[in-house]
Write a structure and sequence with these properties.
Blueprint: H1 9-13, E1 30-34, E2 36-38, E3 41-43, H2 48-51, E4 57-58, H3 62-68, H4 75-89, E5 102-109, E6 113-120, E7 125-131, H5 140-155, E8 163-167, E9 180-184, E10 189-190, H6 200-218, E11 227-230, E12 241-242, E13 253-256, H7 259-267, H8 281-298, H9 300-308, H10 316-334, H11 337-341, E14 345-347, E15 357-359, E16 367-370, E17 378-380, H12 381-384, H13 416-441, H14 446-452, H15 456-463, H16 474-485, H17 502-529, E18 536-537, H18 542-563, H19 569-575
Antiparallel strand pairs: 1-5, 2-3, 4-18, 5-6, 6-7, 7-9, 8-9, 10-15, 11-13, 12-13, 14-17, 15-16
Helix pairs in contact: 6-13, 8-10, 13-14, 15-16
Length: 584
């Protein structure tokens, strides 16, 4: 179908030859802050440089973004605790003298955490991780991350930091005024520092090790779905399931509630959706539409406003109808053989980017540590298995096995610059393909490959149960259509439990072109500005990006409003992914 409005050629060609950079701020921006010792106390010249977020700017809702990441705490108390842990745990076995004070702090900021590398006067180092307000619900987020790290260290061969001490409460006898985790500093360097200069064979060795780690994770079958906790940390009023004695001989760990569900209930005060843990796959799956139904019932006006951001002709009634249909469908899918086989409850690292993998500085094929397990949770394997972020297919339409990537058919007619770009794209694609083929070829990883290549028509209904932030119902209804059309082909029993009317289909397809065009504009703008929907930009690029956005917006208005007449200025504002320059 023809798009509702054309994509301006200016947007399609300008700046797109530049490499796209993931805008999610990783723990790689360093700010050395030398602590001046006074009477063996830890003195920070300007604590605000630690409390405030200083590693980037935002094109949208910047005040809110900064507020969510502004964390005050007792830095001197934290440093004193760190000194105690350094001496107790002998964090640097090469030094004989005890630490007496922290002499340097290096701040590394992430999307929802601060990591402080604390250097002692005897050369020892450790890391203090402080979750920001947007990291998750108080207590549960830190408690789960601590338990996950301790479980992996104690019960697996996966290299992770040692946890020395922590507080999952801002106020207790160890209080520093915020939750924290004191842990060992990862050995080696981040893979990000080595990856570009590594040979293909070296990269393959790293991928092979990651595949081994995923194999070990996939063999750990948990008793329920939820988050991992220390048993002593879960209050008695909350449900939990202890791990098997084989998996956890000392009986230290349990599967407890999902902290993401707890957080949603906290944000929507008064909403009481099921927070888990879930003993069965069926109860876990049912939670998703139930939670969305409760959210709509709690705040229908807010949901309608979200729907209106895409188009006023969408309604809460349509969303409720979708939820009812998904609710009636999921039990059938849960009982379907291929779904059941890939639904085992497993723990997974959801963000294996180059900054979260540490390698030996002399031998970068050796992984020394995997960090940032904060988002790890226990879910069905088919929801967990995915290409690790550092080998995700980029700039190339991924075709699953047995297809292989290749240079474009018109390669010989391309310019030299285009040929080089095509070669780089192919090289990246071959790395992605290597991960896929190695996962498939290894018998012990075959179930991961099955989950990785799982038919989207079967997994979509589980993950597309809620309205997305962009406010369009198109992806939700697409899920219903794809499944109903393939019902018999997929071997599902009986007839599909729902049927979309001709009127519903007509209304849906009238929105599809608009949705696709908007998505293309958003992706084009994101690529041109090298950001994503959050609008995060490095400090040094911020002013230039603001100016670039102004130019892109003016060109867009000229082409689709002033000359093309495809839409009015208000519609153009709604399509644009960021506040327009004249709104700022």
């Amino acid at each position: 179908m023809k798009p509702l409005f054309p994509i301006p050629s200016f947007l399609l060609i300008r700046h797109l030859s530049k490499p796209t950079r993931l805008s999610k701020p990783q723990f790689h921006v360093k700010h050395p802050l030398t602590a001046l010792p006074i009477r063996h106390h830890h003195s920070i010249p300007n604590p605000e440089t630690i409390y405030a977020y200083t590693s980037g700017r935002w094109l949208v809702s910047e005040d809110l973004q900064l507020k969510q990441r502004y964390m005050t705490f007792d830095i001197n108390k934290l440093c004193s605790l760190a000194v105690e842990e350094c001496n107790k745990n002998k964090t640097n076995t090469n030094v004989q003298t005890k630490a007496t004070k922290c002499i340097n702090i290096t701040k590394l900021e992430g999307a929802s955490n601060k990591a402080l590398v604390l250097t002692m006067d005897n050369g020892s180092e450790l890391v203090a991780k402080i979750p920001c307000l947007n990291a998750g619900p108080k207590f549960w987020t830190t408690a789960s991350e601590v338990a996950t790290l301790m479980f992996l260290k104690k019960c697996t061969s996966i290299p992770v930091p040692d946890v020395y001490s922590w507080s999952s409460e801002a106020e207790n006898r160890y209080a520093v005024g915020a939750e924290y985790i004191l842990m060992s500093k990862a050995d080696g360097v981040s893979l990000d520092e080595k990856w570009v200069d590594m040979t293909r064979a070296e990269k393959h060795k790293v991928i092979d090790r990651v595949i081994e780690i995923e194999r070990e994770l996939s063999n750990l079958i948990f008793p329920a779905y939820g988050n991992l906790y220390l048993r002593v940390d879960v209050p008695a009023r909350w449900n939990s399931y202890p791990l098997s004695s084989k998996m956890d001989p000392e009986g230290l760990f349990c599967v407890g509630p999902s902290y993401s569900s707890i957080w949603l209930n906290e944000k929507l005060s008064g909403m009481k959706a099921d927070e888990g843990p879930w003993k069965t796959f069926e109860s876990f799956a049912a939670n998703y539409p139930q939670r969305e139904k409760a959210r709509v019932a709690k705040s229908p006006d807010k949901i309608q406003s979200q729907l209106n951001t895409f188009h006023e002709n969408q309604s809460v009634e349509e969303l409720n109808s979708f939820i009812e249909r998904i609710t009636s469908t999921l039990p059938i899918l849960c009982a379907h053989g291929p779904v059941k086989e890939t639904s085992i409850p497993v723990l997974w690292h959801m963000d294996l980017n180059l900054n979260n993998i540490f390698v030996d500085s002399e031998n970068p094929t050796k992984i020394t540590s995997i960090i940032d397990w904060q988002s790890a949770r226990i879910r069905p394997l088919f929801m967990q298995a995915h290409f690790p972020r550092f080998v995700e297919p980029r700039g190339w339409k991924f075709l699953p096995f047995p297809a292989m990537p290749a240079l474009p058919d018109d390669f010989d007619s391309l310019s030299e610059e285009e040929k080089e770009k095509a070669k780089r794209t192919l090289s990246d694609a071959m790395i992605s393909k290597y991960y896929e083929l190695r996962t498939r070829a290894t018998e012990e990883n075959r179930k991961i490959f099955t989950a990785l290549s799982f038919d989207r028509r079967l997994w979509e209904p589980f993950l597309y149960c809620q309205l997305f932030s962009h406010g369009s119902l198109v992806p939700n209804i697409n899920t219903l259509i794809r499944l109903s059309e393939a019902w018999s082909e997929l071997g599902l029993p009986g007839d599909c439990p729902y049927r979309l009317t001709e009127e519903e289909l007509k209304r849906h397809y009238s929105r599809v072109d608009d949705y696709d065009a908007r998505r293309e504009i958003r992706e084009t703008v994101f690529n041109a500005l090298r950001t994503d929907e959050s609008g995060w930009v490095e400090n040094e690029r911020f002013e230039a990006v603001k100016e670039m956005q102004k130019q892109l917006w003016e060109e867009f208005v000229r082409m689709v409003v002033e000359e093309g007449g495809e839409m009015g200025i208000e519609e153009a504002r709604r399509v644009w992914p960021f506040p327009t320059p004249d709104d700022c």
